[in-house]
């Protein structure tokens, strides 16, 4: 019996086109290439694949990504400090935004490096934002720290600047197709809505900031779920887009809800601590159902403070309370993490046969 021939190599250009079209994620393309060339003995069993984490996010495909990323950070910081003697703050920001775009053409569009693409996408929005707003106010960017800066600067100029930033963010995403760009577009879109509301009804957002942040968080969460439900098995880039939206929505929701709780019970009270723990359990149930851990990560610090307050009520020393808090919090996190799939199956059991279940990842 003749030995089987090794498979023909996959064409990198076709793999890259599949990633850009959303058919494969970058990580899946890498794994497909390894699978295509690897021997059958290297393959994982179906049981191993069944329990693979569907919420994996791949930042790095090799140390080459890290090496290039270090160079990008050093270069951009060097440009920022080097231009301080020649340009105003908004001019420096504009140059940095332009440099980011040029670098993205090389490392995102052509080389398709994971970590450099992420860093360049994350850096573009604040750089371009600072350039546009610095140009509008035409003075030191410390004006952005003033609570009433919207009214002190001409709204007729501020609003077009926001539209310009939003358009540039959309164009940047359209050009480079990096999933985190969806979160950037959502962020600037919500900021644009907030600016329009504040200009029409001055003081409304400032006086109800917690409610608006909660609303923005819920809108972002709904958008994340829309992407998740388009890809329940999390095989395409829609899953990566949803991940970043979940990560953005989580702190907005958690911080806003707990701020409202603090307004009712007072921060640092027994009732507040108990409410935080109950809320964390509710968030844990939601996170388990949708198979996303971002909500839990955002609530960890609040949960730690709540546990610490309850332990300190037992009249123990500060050192003992601190150590006990870390032990309890860490143990709780490990318990949920290790039993994640079991807890999901338990929570989703009442939904068996419901259409909604087909829009969520399969409980494993």
TrEMBL record:
This is DUF2157 domain-containing protein. The keyword Transmembrane helix applies. The chain crosses the membrane at residues 63-81, 87-106, 118-137, 157-174, 181-205, 211-230, 242-264, 270-289, 294-311, 323-343. Keywords: Membrane, Transmembrane, Transmembrane helix.
């Amino acid at each position: 019996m003749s030995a089987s021939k090794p498979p023909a190599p996959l064409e990198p250009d076709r793999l890259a086109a599949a990633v850009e079209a959303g058919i494969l994620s970058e990580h899946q393309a890498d794994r497909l290439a390894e699978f295509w060339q690897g021997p059958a003995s290297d393959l994982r069993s179906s049981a191993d694949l069944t329990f693979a984490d569907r919420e994996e996010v791949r930042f790095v495909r090799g140390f080459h990504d890290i090496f290039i990323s270090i160079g990008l950070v050093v270069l951009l910081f060097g440009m920022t400090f080097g231009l301080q003697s020649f340009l105003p703050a908004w001019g420096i920001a504009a140059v940095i935004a332009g440099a980011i775009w040029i670098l993205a053409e090389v490392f995102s569009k052509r080389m398709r490096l994971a970590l450099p693409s992420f860093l360049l996408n994350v850096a573009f929005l604040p750089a371009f934002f600072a350039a546009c707003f610095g140009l509008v106010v035409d003075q030191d960017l410390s004006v952005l720290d003033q609570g009433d800066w919207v009214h002190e600067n001409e709204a007729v100029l501020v609003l077009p600047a926001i539209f310009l930033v939003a358009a540039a963010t959309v164009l940047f995403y359209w050009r480079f197709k990096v999933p985190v760009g969806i979160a950037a577009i959502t962020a600037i879109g919500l900021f644009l809505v907030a600016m329009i509301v504040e200009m029409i009804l001055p003081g409304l957002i400032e006086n109800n900031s917690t409610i608006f942040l909660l609303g923005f968080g819920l809108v972002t969460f709904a958008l994340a779920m829309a992407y998740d439900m388009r890809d329940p098995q999390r095989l395409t880039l829609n899953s990566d887009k949803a991940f970043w939206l979940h990560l953005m929505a989580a702190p907005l929701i958690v911080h806003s809800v707990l701020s409202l709780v603090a307004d009712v019970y007072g921060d640092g009270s027994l009732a507040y601590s108990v409410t935080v723990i109950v809320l964390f359990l509710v968030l844990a149930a939601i996170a388990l159902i949708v198979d996303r851990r971002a909500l839990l990560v955002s609530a960890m610090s609040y949960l730690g403070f709540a546990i610490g307050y309850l332990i300190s009520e037992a009249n123990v020393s500060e050192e003992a309370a601190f150590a006990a808090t870390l032990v309890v919090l860490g143990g709780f996190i490990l318990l949920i993490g290790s039993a994640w799939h079991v807890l999901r199956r338990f929570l989703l059991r009442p939904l068996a046969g419901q259409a909604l279940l087909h829009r969520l990842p399969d409980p494993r």
